[in-house]
UniProtKB/TrEMBL annotation:
N-terminal signal peptide: none
Classification via SUPFAM superfamilies: ABC transporter transmembrane region, P-loop containing nucleoside triphosphate hydrolases
Molecular function GO labels: ATP binding; ATP hydrolysis activity; ATPase-coupled lipid transmembrane transporter activity
Keywords, comma-separated and alphabetical: ATP-binding, Cell inner membrane, Cell membrane, Membrane, Nucleotide-binding, Transmembrane, Transmembrane helix, Transport
Membrane topology according to the record: Multi-pass membrane protein
Stored Pfam families: ABC_tran (PF00005)
Higher taxonomy: Bacteria, Bacillati, Actinomycetota, Actinomycetes, Streptosporangiales
Keyword Transmembrane helix: yes
SMART domains: AAA
Protein name: ATP-binding cassette subfamily B protein
Length: 589
């Protein structure tokens, strides 16, 4: 019971997030709307009594009209005011959810199914039965408080004539409401268990309507297949929900029966009293109106379900918030990076990607990491940037364990182009500056990075140059080709490297470039960032010949290490792969 009261009080406190004026206006409207039914029962009795006595009806009629006007005005305002407060609260809560998702030092939690389920529940936008949001729960709780007050006021008026009937109606209606709410709330836990299935439904909906899969869906004629998968996932979820809701309805049969009994009592008790002369006609009107006000005030509206769903979102938020923020650590100093017996497996994976890996990266070195797909090349870069931590072993930065360092300070030493780099919506200027937002850069600084990345022609051809908006789905936006986006991503990383980032990581940086552009790129990049440590990850061996050192990964281990010429002379895996790629290129030519 104490926990329930604490949760409900917490909901009311959330209203502070909406400011002062809007909650105050909402409270005023709720107070007037809650008091109006009780006042109306008194005014109705006054009017009926005046009519029966043949007296002046202007005053009671005007009073009744005024009460009705106040009630309708308050009720018409409370919905938009409540929605405004709810949106403000939900904005704060969803911002908090995003902060929690972003604050962790790595990204492993984003691939955890339980974390994703909690994230979905904490920021649910209402794809299920009702909007599951703390904002609607907070305003719903406020409505219930005032409606309960209205029920008590109407009960007090009825108690002036029939105390036991008033007690029966108020207590009975509240018990009915509590029981019905408990039955409906049981469906919330069922729906919470379906979060993963709901995300699968959303996935198939995105495949059907999103741009990412549009080409293959149309080329392979997958439209019917995708829609069938989406319908199957949706039906599987809704069938379970429907079964739970129908079971809840069946369990509420006693509530319906008891409601009928109370309604009958509310009519018969005052009616018999009036028929036998124990209650005047004005008292009859007052009692009937007061009884109706009690029924209205205790009716379980949608706000009760809003609370049940919104509390679920808050509980999910609490679970997300429980681990606490990244504890930080000592500032990272740039120096040699050493992988010592590092083993790593992705969350939920049966086999590790890296197995007992040992590798040292010296400052100023151009290191190439090559190997077949799945060898662990990209995984190594994710460990190097602190996005994941080793399952076993350790990574030392200038002799300090990366786990104990402030990962944000370490990342300020790094510029990176990931294989799946992001196409940011914004201007060309913003797309480049994002890699070092603390730098106040001139256009010349930006153009220098663009030139080294070989993207000068691309930018010059854009309608507004550096100010061109890159957003292919937006009005006035421009999209780039895959190779052009890649050059822009390279310019972004090079801009950071030119402004103090000491470690440049390039993961398959030339995947969308042709051979000629690829050769030109490496000549420009290596010459353009002298003294910078460059880690180059590639499966094209033609791109790594000028590296100071080449390591070959296979099965999560380093099987060869050396310069290009030395590895060719050794006649091992690198030499075989190089000759194979050279033969394919010659044949294609």
């Amino acid at each position: 019971m104490t926990g329930l009261v604490r949760e409900r009080a917490r909901l009311v406190r959330l209203l502070r997030l909406a400011g002062r004026a809007r909650p105050a206006a909402l409270i005023a409207c709720l107070l007037l709307a809650a008091a109006a039914p009780a006042a109306m029962s008194l005014a109705a009795g006054w009017l009926v009594g005046a009519i029966a006595a043949g007296g002046d009806v202007v005053a009671p009629l005007a009073t009744l009209a005024a009460v009705l006007l106040v009630q309708r005005t308050a009720e018409s305002l409370q919905d938009p005011l409540g929605a405004t407060c709810s949106r403000s609260i939900d904005g704060h809560v969803r911002t908090r959810v995003r902060q929690i998702a972003l604050r962790q030092r790595g990204i492993a939690h984003l691939e955890d199914e339980e974390f994703q389920d909690l994230l979905s529940r904490a920021s649910d936008r209402g794809e299920s039965w009702r909007v599951r949001s703390p904002g609607t729960a907070a305003t719903g709780q406020l409505m219930i408080v005032f409606r309960a007050g209205g029920a008590v006021a109407a009960g007090a008026i009825l108690a002036g004539h029939f105390p036991l009937l008033a007690l029966l109606l108020v207590a009975g209606c509240l018990l009915q409401r509590s029981y019905a709410l408990r039955q409906w709330s049981s469906t919330v836990s069922v729906e919470d268990g379906l979060t993963s299935k709901q995300r699968r439904t959303e996935y198939w909906a995105e495949v059907a309507s999103g741009a990412e899969a549009a080409k293959e869906v149309r080329m392979f004629g997958l439209a019917d297949w995708v829609m069938e998968r989406r319908l199957r996932a949706h039906t599987e979820t809704t069938d379970i929900m429907w079964t739970a809701r129908m079971a809840s309805l069946r369990r509420q049969a006693p509530v319906a029966a008891s409601a009928a009994v109370m309604a009958l009592a509310a009519l018969l008790v005052p009616g018999i009293a009036a028929a036998t002369g124990r209650l005047a006609v004005d008292g009859l009107a007052t009692c009937l109106a007061a009884a109706w006000a009690i029924f209205q005030a205790t009716y379980m509206g949608q706000e009760a379900l809003d609370i049940a769903y919104g509390l679920g979102a808050l509980r999910a938020l609490d679970q997300l918030d429980a681990p606490g923020a990244d504890p930080g650590g000592e500032p990272a100093r740039y120096g040699p990076v050493r992988f010592e017996n590092v083993t790593f497996a992705y969350p939920g994976a049966a086999e590790p990607v890296l197995r007992g890996l040992d590798l040292t990266i010296e400052p100023g070195e151009v290191l190439a990491i090559v190997g077949v797909n799945g060898a662990g090349k990209t995984t190594l870069s994710k460990l190097l940037t602190g996005l994941y931590t080793p399952s076993a072993g350790r990574i030392l930065v200038d002799g300090a364990d990366l786990r104990r360092l402030d990962v944000e300070s370490w990342r300020r030493h790094i510029a990176v182009v990931f294989q799946d780099f992001v196409h940011y919506s914004g201007s060309v200027r913003d797309n480049i500056r994002l890699s070092a937002p603390e730098i106040v850069a001139s256009d010349d600084d930006l153009r220098r990075a663009i030139h080294v990345a070989g993207a000068s022609d691309v930018i010059e051809d854009l309608p507004a140059g550096l100010d061109t908006s890159l957003w292919h789905t937006g009005t006035g936006g421009t999209d780039l080709s895959g190779g052009q986006w890649q050059r822009l991503a390279l310019a972004r990383a090079l801009f950071a490297a030119e402004h103090g980032r000491r470690l440049l990581i390039l993961d398959e940086p030339t995947a969308n470039l042709d051979i000629q552009a690829e050769t030109q790129f490496y000549q420009q990049v290596i010459a353009g960032v002298p003294g910078t440590t460059v880690v180059l990850i590639s499966h094209r061996l033609s791109t790594v010949q000028h590296a100071d050192r080449i390591v070959v990964l296979d099965g999560g281990r380093i099987i060869e290490s050396g310069g290009h010429a030395d590895l060719l002379r050794a006649g091992g895996a690198y030499a075989r792969l190089f000759r194979l790629q050279a033969e394919r290129f010659t044949a294609a030519s």
